[in-house]
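Appendix B, Record 12. Input sequence as logged:
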Amino acid sequence: MQFLDEKNNPLANQKYIIEIDGILSKGSTDGDGKIEQSIPPNARGGKIVIGELRDEYLLNFGHIDPIEEISGVQGRLNNLGYDCGLIDGVLGKQTKEALLAYQNDHGLNKSGDIDEETRRHLKEKHGS
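Logged structural output:
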């Protein structure tokens, strides 16, 4: 996983604590803000607390809906730090705001809608 700040700069060389299904590990991000962590195949979720500001990220493992579904777009945006709120499959206000922020940060057409360019870029950035 790679962690970026609000300006898309890596959270480089930051201490973190990761908890996966109740098991704690500690470490530091690398120079690119990345963490490599083995995850048991049956892991369901966890959290990472990173940096001096103790930013907390919740982790859900397993299933993510297809990128063609609104819920799939929401899941990917949430995973990348763009808060859609509840993954409910509805293109509501919070999801549109997250889309606008993502589009703005990545130099895409700022529509707040799920166009093909945004969908393609989101899938590439997310890695699935």
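Residues 93-105 form the longest helix (13 residues).
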